[in-house]
C-alpha cells in the first residue's frame, strides 16, 4: 500500500531477522519487504526472465523453468559483481506466477533457500517480501553479524526501485542505481552505514549480545565494495522461469496442484 512521499530509501524497506539455535550452527531467516509501484504481473518479468533481469541486474544462464538449474555469472557491470567474483548457481524449486518463487541459492560452497512473495495491493502496487534462509557456523555469525548476508538483498531492492521508479509513491526522491562508483562514493557509504545500523538493531532484537552486534555492524559497513573481505558472503538477486517451453512461468503449476 502506498503512503505519503516522506520516506528515505532506507526506510522504504522493512527488515526482520529470526535466529534458531542449532548448537554449533545458527539458522538465520533474513526478511526484507517493500512496496513497489507496479502490479505483480508487471513486476514479475523483471525478476523472472532473462531480458527483464538484464535490464537492471545482469546476465542469467541455464534452464530457468520450475525444476531447472540456473547460473548467474558475476559479469563486469552486473549487480552480482558488486558483491564479489563468485558466480551463483541454484535450482528453481517452486513457481506460482506472478506471486511466489522458491529457489535454492548456491554460492561459496553453501546452499541456502530463497523465497520471494509478490502480493497485490488495492491501489495497484505490490507488496514484495524476500526471505533468505541460511545456516552458518555460530562463530561466523557472532563475529560478522547477519548484515553481511543481507546487504546484497538491500542492493537488489535499491537497483530494482531505481530501474522502475518503484518507490515514487513513498520516497522523497528516486534512488540512484547502485554501481561500483556509487559504492565507493558518499551515497554508497551513507547507504552501507544505514543498512549496518538497521541490521544491528535486528540482530540485537534476535538475541545476539551487544559486543557481537557491534562487530557485525562494522562488518556490514565493509561487506561490499572494492577490496571487500566479506563480499563472497553477500547474495545477489533471484532468478527463475523463462527458459522452459514445457513450463513457462505464465502457466506454471501452483504448488500442491
Q: Numbering strands along the chain, what is their spatial order in the largest sheet?
A: 1-2-8-7-6-5-4-3
Total strands: the figure is 8
Query: Helix-strand pattern, N to C?
Result: EEHHEEEEEEHHHHH
Number of helices: 7
Main sheet properties:
8 strands, antiparallel
Strand content: 25-35%
Whole-number radius of gyration?
A: 17 Å
The general outline is globular
* Sequence stretches where pLDDT stays below 50 over 5 or more residues: 229-257
N-to-C terminal Cα separation, in Å?
Answer: 30 Å
Helix content: 25-40%
Structure description:
By secondary structure, the protein is of the alpha+beta class. It contains 7 helices and 8 strands, in the order ββααββββββααααα. The chain has an 8-stranded antiparallel beta sheet. Strand 5 (about 90-95) and strand 6 form a beta hairpin. The longest helix has 21 residues, at about 185-205. About 45% of the residues are buried. Mean pLDDT is about 85; it is low at about 230-255.
Write a compact overview of the structure shown.
The chain has helices at 40-48, 50-54, 138-144, 147-164, 180-184, 186-206, 210-221; strands at residues 13-21, 25-36, 61-62, 69-72, 88-96, 100-107, 110-120, 126-137. The chain is of the alpha+beta class and 257 residues long.
Amino acid at each position: 500500500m502506498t503512503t505519503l512521499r516522506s520516506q528515505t530509501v532506507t526506510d522504504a524497506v522493512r527488515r526482520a531477522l529470526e535466529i534458531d539455535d542449532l548448537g554449533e550452527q545458527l539458522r538465520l531467516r533474513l526478511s526484507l519487504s517493500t512496496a513497489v509501484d507496479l502490479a505483480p504481473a508487471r513486476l514479475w518479468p523483471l525478476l523472472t526472465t532473462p531480458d527483464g533481469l538484464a535490464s537492471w541486474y545482469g546476465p542469467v544462464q541455464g534452464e530457468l523453468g520450475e525444476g531447472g538449474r540456473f547460473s548467474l555469472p558475476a559479469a563486469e557491470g552486473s549487480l552480482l559483481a558488486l558483491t564479489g567474483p563468485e558466480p551463483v548457481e541454484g535450482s528453481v524449486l517452486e513457481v506460482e506466477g506472478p506471486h511466489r518463487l522458491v529457489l535454492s541459492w548456491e554460492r561459496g560452497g553453501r546452499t541456502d533457500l530463497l523465497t520471494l512473495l509478490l502480493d497485490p495491493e488495492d491501489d495497484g502496487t505490490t507488496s514484495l517480501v524476500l526471505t533468505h534462509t541460511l545456516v552458518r557456523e555460530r562463530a561466523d555469525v557472532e563475529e560478522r553479524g547477519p548484515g553481511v548476508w543481507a546487504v546484497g538483498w538491500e542492493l537488489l531492492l535499491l537497483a530494482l526501485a531505481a530501474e522502475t521508479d518503484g518507490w515514487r509513491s513513498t520516497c522523497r526522491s528516486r534512488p540512484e542505481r547502485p554501481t561500483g562508483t556509487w559504492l565507493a562514493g558518499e551515497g554508497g557509504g551513507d547507504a552501507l552505514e544505514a543498512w549496518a545500523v538497521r541490521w544491528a538493531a535486528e540482530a540485537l532484537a534476535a538475541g545476539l549480545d551487544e559486543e557481537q552486534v557491534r562487530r557485525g555492524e562494522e562488518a556490514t559497513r565493509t561487506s561490499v565494495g572494492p577490496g571487500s573481505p566479506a563480499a563472497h558472503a553477500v547474495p545477489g538477486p533471484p532468478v527463475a522461469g523463462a527458459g522452459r517451453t514445457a513450463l513457462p512461468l505464465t502457466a506454471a503449476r501452483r504448488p500442491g496442484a
